[in-house]
Amino acid sequence: MAAVGRPRRSCLAVPGSSVKMLGKAQGLPADQVFLDLEDAVAPLAKSDARKNIVAALNEGDWTGKTRVVRVNDLTTPWTYRDVIDVVEGAGANLDCVMLPKVQDAVQVQWLDLTLTQLEKTLGLQVGRIGIEAQIENAAGLVNVDAIAAASPRVETIVFGPADFMASINMRSLMVGGLIPDYPGDPYHYILMRLLMAARMHDKQAIDGPFLQIRDVDAFREAAKRSAALGFDGKWVLHPGQIEAANEVYSPAQADYDHAELILDAYEHYTSAAGGKLGAVMLGDEMIDEASRKMALVIAAKGRAAGMTRTSTFTPPG
Ligand code: GLV
Ligand code: MG
């Protein structure tokens, strides 16, 4: 099933230790920001980063952006303090908590229960804060169905390629890019596995970072591969990657127009006035109920991206 929720074509990583970047990110055209307490923040800077993030969420202008904080993973001593400080300090100005290196459903349930406790104590609406589950190791991938189903708060399944590559001993340092020794896409299985779990449970599927931040063409190629499979968006690490992600994860104008046309034509032809037909020709193409479902996916993505159609369907008369 197509998961359409908050737009997340571009998910911008912002280190919580950098007050400057927390400020700058607010003016960038990313669909989502995630303010990081995990791997972009040194252990000795975690405590200050929590304070910076609370201040940035409460005092910044994040209009139009989904606001996410990535906490540390549950094998560290920091996770509970991350969640408590951020939600107590800025729970009303936070949309999701991202849990990295998720290994099983219990970890998601821990976060769900902790958020519920905090929301009840703080008088916040219970269940409003969502969860992003980042899959970064073999255990997480093997358990991804249970992870996606672990809580209604889960909104996304996110790929973490760098940690994942380390977890499975992949012999490359080229995160997110193709590997010359492998005659295919080394991430294909992982991406498809994540996508199946996400779609089965009606969650969004988000691709991870591409580290060669100055090579926007290479970023675009990597993004196109997961977009072609059906992913909803990708992390961006640099302002230069944002426009490319917004473009790649939106339908092309011609595809969007075509999808809207199929929906209108199908509605007309299946109606009494249109002849109660199930399978009909639209130009040179035969369309039926499955075409409508495919068109709905593209149309929904286009509408979520704020696209305007440039053609209309005129019933033959
Ligand atoms: C992101 O967290 C990654 O490990 O790629
Ligand atoms: Mg990681």
From TrEMBL:
Q: What Gene3D superfamilies does the record tag this protein with?
A: Phosphoenolpyruvate-binding domains
Q: Which cofactor does it need?
A: Mg(2+)
**InterPro entries membership:** Aldolase/citrate-lyase_domain (IPR005000), Citrate_lyase_beta/mcl1/mcl2 (IPR011206), Pyrv/PenolPyrv_kinase-like_dom (IPR015813), Pyrv_kinase-like_dom_sf (IPR040442)
What's a Gene Ontology MF term here?
lyase activity
Which residue positions does the secretion signal occupy?
none
Q: Which residues form the HpcH/HpaI aldolase/citrate lyase domain?
A: 9-239
Q: Domain of life, per the record?
A: Bacteria
What are the entry keywords? Lyase, Magnesium, Metal-binding
Q: Does the keyword Acyltransferase apply?
A: no
Its name, as the record gives it, is CoA ester lyase
